[in-house]
Design brief:
It is built from 14 helices and 30 strands. With 550 residues, it is an alpha/beta fold. A hairpin with a 5-residue loop joins β13 and β14. The N and C termini lie far apart (56 Å).
Amino acid sequence: MERGLWRFLKVLFVAAFAFHPYFCHAQKDPQYSFVQEATSAPPVSYHSYIVVGGGAAGCPLAATLSEKANVLVLERGGSPYLVPGKTDKVNFLIGLYDTSNESYAQHFYSEDGIFSHRARVLGGGTVINAGYYSHADPKFIEETRLDPALVKDSYQWVEKKLAFQPPILQWQSAVKDALLEAGVQPFNNFTYEHIVGTKIAASIFDENDHRHSAADLLEYANPGNIKVYLHATVHQIIFTTENNGSRPRATGVIYVDALGVKHTASLTKDSTSEIIVSSGAIGSPQLLMLSGVGPAPQLQAMGIPVVVDQPMVGQNMADNFLNGIIVPSPLPVETSLLPSVGITQFQNYIEAWSGLNMPPFTGPIRKPLPPLLNQIYTEARKKVEPYPNTTRLQGGIIVQKAGRPLSTGYVELKSTDPNETPKVFFNYFNKTEDVDMCVRGMETVIKVVNSNSFSKFRFTSVSTQDLMNLTATITSNVRPKHFNTAMSLPQYCKDSVSTFWHYHGSCQVGKVVDNDYRVLGVDNLRVIDASTFHATPGTNPQATVMMLGR
Ligand SMILES: Cc1cc2nc3c(=O)[nH]c(=O)nc-3n(C[C@H](O)[C@H](O)[C@H](O)COP(=O)(O)OP(=O)(O)OC[C@H]3O[C@@H](n4cnc5c(N)ncnc54)[C@H](O)[C@@H]3O)c2cc1C
Ligand SMILES: *[C@@H]1O[C@H](CO)[C@@H](O)[C@H](O)[C@H]1NC(C)=O
Ligand SMILES: *[C@@H]1O[C@H](CO)[C@@H](O)[C@H](O)[C@H]1NC(C)=O
Ligand SMILES: *[C@@H]1O[C@H](CO)[C@@H](O)[C@H](O)[C@H]1NC(C)=O
Ligand SMILES: *[C@@H]1O[C@H](CO)[C@@H](O)[C@H](O)[C@H]1NC(C)=O
Ligand SMILES: *[C@@H]1O[C@H](CO)[C@@H](O)[C@H](O)[C@H]1NC(C)=O
Ligand SMILES: *[C@@H]1O[C@H](CO)[C@@H](O)[C@H](O)[C@H]1NC(C)=O
């Protein structure tokens, strides 16, 4: 009798706890028990490794470290598992232009007038990106001096969870044939490898067009050894400097949860403990600078105490420019994202997508079209459910990037607020070689668009020049346009430039970190993510970022 009552009270107590709104909110991630809101974190905790940023590099890194040690991941965004369908292939652009407070993309304009996006979600860029999955070019692996056998194993570890062979339907089949017609030879079929010619690339979208992401790599984690806090924005890395003149040593971080409450995570005293910054090409240099590691004059101007004067932090930021041609189609097209790809002798990479849901055509980002183009473009957009005001593009875009642009810019602090995107300058087309590369790439894109294989997807009344005009008009950048006369290709490159989102170089190996990715001048601190790259690995970086994390 007494035992029965006790049991009853216990059940009641547990139920009250579990269904209390605070704990429902705080404790439940649909995917993982160890992923929780930072509001449920203790004021102070101790860990062998603290990973700042649960993105493309941070997730595989943390899963790997948890095999043998206690790991904490602090991610400023939320869970990618809450809204089914939100990150499906067809919604790629809708997601990017989502301006709600639940958006996985943080928007910004670069100093050179490019509208762009930064991931803010567990899984990072792999939750908002175009899904294209391919290995680095062999030259990149050589230059980074990574162990080739380990590289191969690590790619495979990633691929077991999230690489798929995409279908090649009408539009992508025409793109493939058009590339071959344009001379991007030979055909290399489906492969992960980076080889000159035309190939079919892998994708992190599965056969049902559902996205898989770096967050799925946390399935490999040892649940007893890892904690992931969401909406946990790291404000600062803490350093100590002993009076005996030793180097500054990272000892912990301060992070802030969704309710604005501060927490401290500290390293345990064992000799291997470290903080690893995996906050991406924009976030990593920003956090180093906010913590006192960066160019001294810039830090002093912001009132930040200098821990180490490191002039190279944030310098050499680069992006691969994206230029292309939008092609509205008289025929229906499938929904596709980038499977057919051309890798030219000159290392221009040509990719294409089609049939995606379009973001709203209003607001500061979009401008009205000239009447002829407006009519064609509107004809080519069809209403789709379930989004009442969403239209799907009947048509697509052929885009290209240069493998290794030479122009570089910087990341500099705009304020001491870690939530604000710092000043980002890519300095597109600063070097004339980059303009030449773009012109070469555009020449191939034009050949593709004008090829026999592609003719069934063209309105006969619309010239290629019209299409270029359309593309330059609706490109979401705020750069001056020069299309009163037929545009020259160099001018077209500059006017219609977008980002390929392949930011890299702001915490480069040899400049900010050593060959083991340790931050120069301090102890117990590394950076592991795309900011360490001196070039984009191959056509697209995500496979290599995740491989590096592993
Ligand atoms: C729109 C878009 C399309 C792309 N398309 C492709 C593609 O098709 N194929 C491809 O290979 N690559 C693509 N990429 C590039 C690829 O996604 C990135 O190269 C990759 O995600 C970079 O990984 P990262 O780990 O360096 O940074 P991220 O993946 O961005 O991870 C950084 C993480 O750190 C978190 N963070 C930042 N600051 C803090 C802080 N202070 N505290 C806590 N957390 C913080 C961020 O929220 C984020 O989750 C695309 C990228 C974008 C944005
Ligand atoms: C977004 O705003 C809605 C409505 O104001 C609120 O209920 C929700 O909690 C917010 N979400 C985030 C992640 O801030
Ligand atoms: C490409 O590979 C597929 C199997 O994946 C095969 O059926 C096809 O014949 C190959 N095509 C060429 C041109 O090699
Ligand atoms: C300074 O002190 C720390 C800890 O007290 C010690 O580990 C380190 O070796 C010392 N460095 C020098 C240069 O004496
Ligand atoms: C859809 O668009 C119409 C007109 O453009 C507008 O009046 C309406 O509010 C929009 N509905 C939604 C749900 O955004
Ligand atoms: C290239 O960039 C540098 C640094 O911003 C600038 O000084 C120079 O004028 C630029 N050159 C050209 C040709 O734009
Ligand atoms: C391009 O569009 C502009 C208006 O947006 C127009 O003035 C110009 O004549 C067009 N050029 C060509 C070659 O169609």
